Amino acid sequence: MRHIALISIIISLFSCSNDTEGHCFCDEALSYFNKGNFIKAKELYFESLRIDSSDYIAYNGIGRCFYESGSTDSAIYYYTKSIEFNQSYRQAYHNRGLCYRRLEDYEKALPDFNKSVKLDQNHYYSIFNRGICYRYLGKYELAKNDFDRAIEINPQNSDAYISRAILTMEESGDFQNYKAIEDWIKVLELNDSVPENIKKELEELIRYQKN
Known about the structure:
The protein is mainly α. The protein has helices at 2-14, 21-34, 38-51, 56-68, 72-85, 90-102, 106-119, 124-136, 140-153, 159-172, 178-190, 196-210. The chain has a domain at 155-211. It starts with a helix and ends with a helix.
């Protein structure tokens, strides 16, 4: 009998209790989401909300499913619901900012990326995406600061190098600006699929610009 009681205790520790059952649905939903099955993932997130209507993780998950399916307005609605139930949930701010960026509403995207950065000052994508918004709004210095910071956080991600190179060319009006070319070379270094002859041409161009 003692063995049965012990087994029961162990099972209870590793099973979903009523308080965490919703999050178990969220874990399963995330697994389907990562496999690209957004319909099944969304069903499971809604099941989590049936158990706990204030599950901010589920609202965020549903928003992601809608976003990946191209339903941006619906995604915004569910990200906003997530924020209503947890105003410190960084992911929902960042994700809603992505929606506004997709809609090219950069003024609306900025506050969400700002809030996301405030909640996590080292979140690469929030800083990078804020820089994108600044660039489209013509705030080049702020954009450059964000791209610089993003590169400092993750120097192995080529996104910020690409955006900083484009920004430099736009701001200078010089498509052969050597600082921009340095960033393009870094992009090529991080991308093994680029032919060596193209890398060499860019390297030759930057040597010419510096002389």
